[in-house]
Design goal:
mainly beta, about 130 residues, 11 strands, seven-stranded mixed beta sheet
């Protein structure tokens, strides 16, 4: 059974850092592009970052460039999202998602992804 499980969320003060993890089971991430997305109540889910199936290309939303870093550990079959200089507007439920592909690059468009995790809450507040 294909499954994605996020972890690492929590309550952080502005300016702080977090590392979110997305552990995959039932499939191998090296055949899937993987993305991180976030959603706040009443708003649409938005893409923040993605990594290609090869792991050699990444993409970021303009709002997070320079603060978010996506990476992957093939041995652990896990994708990470390192977040620094957290801002209150980063408060959201963060989801990871995967899509099988052989295309180079990756997209942060929500409809492109087939498999989703359950999300992890990130709250930035003093």
């Amino acid at each position: 059974q294909l499954q994605l499980v996020e972890s690492g969320g929590g309550l952080v003060q502005p300016g702080g850092s977090l590392r979110l993890s997305c552990a995959a089971s039932g499939f191998t991430l090296t055949s899937y592009a993987t993305g991180w997305f976030r959603q706040v109540p009443g708003k649409e889910r938005e893409g923040v970052s993605c990594i290609s199936y090869r792991g050699d290309m990444t993409n970021y939303a303009d709002s997070v460039k320079g603060r978010f870093t996506i990476s992957r550990d093939n041995a652990k079959n896990t994708v990470y999202l390192q977040i620094t200089n957290l801002k209150p507007e980063d408060t959201a439920v963060y989801y990871c998602a995967a899509r099988p592909t052989t295309r180079l690059g990756c997209t942060i468009q929500v409809p492109a992804y087939d498999y989703w995790g359950q999300g992890t809450q990130v709250t930035v507040s003093s």
